[in-house]
Amino acid sequence: MELVELYPWLIPSLLLVTVGTLIGSYFSFKNEKYVMMMGIGMVQTFISTLLITSVGSILFGIGLTQFYLGIVNTKRVKAMSHE
What we know:
Elements lengths: L1 H5 L3 H21 L3 H15 L7 H27 L1
Helix pairs in contact: 2-3, 3-4
Keywords: Membrane, Transmembrane, Transmembrane helix
């Protein structure tokens, strides 16, 4: 929390990054780029720790869900390609 108080420009930039990752996760799921979705889920999970007083818990849940879906779908695509 001290980082947020020290740098007042941090919260608006984190919100822009959050919106960008949400848009990126939509397009990565739509284009079946599941490795990218895992990376975006990790970024959202890390950002959620800095936004703990506002939307941090929601973003944490979304990030973990995307990370999990990326892992599951990557394994599913690899299993289907071997058949």
